[in-house]
User: What shape does this take?
Amino acid sequence: MHDDDTRSERDLSRQSRLHAHWRRGPRGDDAQFRAGGNAASRNHAFGWRAEAVVAEARREVADLIGAARPRDVIFTSGATESNNTVVRGVAAQFPSVAHVITTAIEHPSILEACLHEQRSGRIALTVVPVDTAGVVSAAAITEAIRRRHA
Assistant: This one.
């Protein structure tokens, strides 16, 4: 292995670790420090403070996005859980089997959630391929829509 190979592997390793993280700003650090506990632990002062911090954040996000009620804002542990929640929630809203169109380059967490819903019989799934340049054509999307609604 050459020095260049080692450096590339090290950079790739560091980059891949950073994909799942985002640095909080000072306000997030302050909120975590003030809370100091688990918001689900409601039998002690640390849990009560944490619950209050989460409730405040929920109100702020609800105001920011125009949600009707703060309780409509759901926090998850990360993007995969969020994507699963959205795909399953949307699939559950349809009285009959919904037709979902996605692409072969969709994020794995979305694609896997869609495949799960398809296997469960809650959605009909069309995965539109990409061309050799990795591009999805508008014609392929149009065809997927027409094929389902023909």
The longest strand covers residues 98-103.
